[in-house]
Amino acid sequence: MSNISIQGLSIRLGSADIIHDLNLEVQAGEFLVLLGPSGCGKSTLLHSIAGFIEPTDGSISIGGSDVTWADPKDRGIGMVFQSYALYPTMTVAQNMSFGPRIAGVPKAQIEARVNKVAEMLRLSDLLHRKPANLSGGQRQRVAIGRALVRQAQVLLFDEPLSNLDAKLRTSLR
Ligand SMILES: Nc1ncnc2c1ncn2[C@@H]1O[C@H](COP(=O)(O)OP(=O)(O)O)[C@@H](O)[C@H]1O
Ligand SMILES: [Mg+2]
Rounded to two decimals, what is the model's pTM? Predict the structure, then answer.
């Protein structure tokens, strides 16, 4: 795990000031929850940490390196998007193994990771399905699985339990 250090972060989208002069320190291993009403900027902040939105001002460091202008793929981040963003042509197993496959992790190691995470997320019986043939809650779990299988230094979860029923939500949490 890596620490995150955000200094003086401002994000303007069009004429709207979404985030204004935000300072935030998250220690390695710390579990931080952002709580706020719809539209307050939670997703925008996560997207900027992951590198999908450029800041208007300020800086973002991960593990001591300034990543303010780094490519998303070079930030060591696993992200669960609010909209899942699964690859529609890939099976559940392929979606979950995508990151490590691109990174050249040995096949046996990837398979072991996918199986372990699938078991934890109750996805073991769905590994060969495509996202179109899954329920919303199942898709959401695949998105969580894809982030976990990467074994990233930083995990960003954007409302990852919102589509699960109460029982599954409690057990996954
Ligand atoms: N591309 C954009 N241009 C202008 N405003 C945007 C854009 N994307 C999001 N917003 C606005 O930014 C605010 C924060 O959005 P968001 O980060 O998605 O909130 P949250 O995730 O907390 O619900 C909202 O008011 C939204 O309408
Ligand atoms: Mg959001």
Answer: 0.89
The predicted-structure confidence for 66-84, as pLDDT tens digits, reads as follows: 999 999 989 999 999 888 8
| Residue ID of nearest Cα to ligand 1 atom 2 | 13
Is there a domain that residue 160 lies in?
A: no
Tokens of 107: 């096949």
Tens-place pLDDT, residues 86-125: 999 999 999 999 989 988 999 999 999 999 999 999 999 9
- What token pair was written down for 30? 């710390």
CATH for 42:
3.40.50.300
**Residue nearest (by alpha carbon) to ligand 1 atom 5:** 13
Residues within 5 Å of ion ligand 2, judged at the Cβ atom: 42-43, 82
Ligand nearest to the CA of 162: 2
Q: Which domain holds residue 95?
A: 86-152+165-173
b/e burial code for range 65-78 (CB count within 10 A of at least 16 → b) = eebbeeeeeebbbb
